[in-house]
Amino acid sequence: MASPSASATKKRSEDNEQTQPSLKNLGTKPQTGTGANIVLLGPPGSGKGTQSTRLSEHYKICQLSTGDLLRQATQDASSPEGKRIRQTMEAGGLVDDHIVMSLIDKNISKPECSNGFLFDGFPRTINQGEQLEHLLESRQKRLDAVIEYAIPDDLLKRRILGRLIHKSSGRTYHEEFNPPKESM
Asked: Looking at the 3D structure of the chain, how many domains does it have?
């Protein structure tokens, strides 16, 4: 896997004592031209989703979350792959790396990913990382940045336990950090 680029510098946040990538260097485009190929790693609640939205909008790249891709695949009732994914997820199991990589391969081929991509929480295993590396090599692409979010366990617990999701819109809120305008 590639090492983080200069634009993935880290700064200390005094508010929550977590290390976060600095967004001040976002105006610097990667050497490959426009767009970027980025991986964000870290536990749930570390801020990957928040930053991935900002980064994908800034670089005009597609944002890919394996969780979202898997949920979308389960919606296709006619697909044998979707059926296998649905059965595995309903049983509480982990979807096979081969299937996950197939979804990744299909999605980075879409026109909306022609300018680059951002993986939110993928790869999750060494095997997935190695397979991603081979996939990118076969397409003559490389990663511009890999950013790992480190966050203290006590803050992570506060972030996860305070999460609120508005089911009808899909918007997320937090009791403490981003409360909804109306009580949920």
From this structure: 2
The rounded distance, in Å, linking the Cα atoms of 159 and 163 is 6
Residue 69, number of CB atoms within 10 A of its CB? 19
Same domain? 133 vs 119? yes
pLDDT at site 30: 43
DSSP conformation class of 178: B
Across 103-132, average pLDDT:
93
Tokens describing residue 154:
């006590």
110 within 8 A of 98, measured Cβ to Cβ: no
Strands, E, within 145-184: which ranges? 145-148, 163-165, 172-174
Q: Rounded to two decimals, what is the model's pTM?
A: 0.71
Residues 106 and 138 in one domain: yes
Lowest mean pLDDT among 6-15, 57-66, 73-82, 162-171: 6-15
> Quick check: is 3 in a domain?
no
29 is a domain residue? no
Question: 165 is in which domain, residue-wise?
Answer: 155-183
Within-domain flag for 26: no
Of 177, 174, 68, 54, nearest to 121 by C-alpha is 68
What mean pLDDT do residues 83-112 have?
Answer: 91
Mean pLDDT (the chain) is: 81
Residue 174 lies in a domain: yes
Does residue 102 share a domain with residue 53?
Answer: yes
Can you read off the two tokens belonging to residue 102? 């197939």
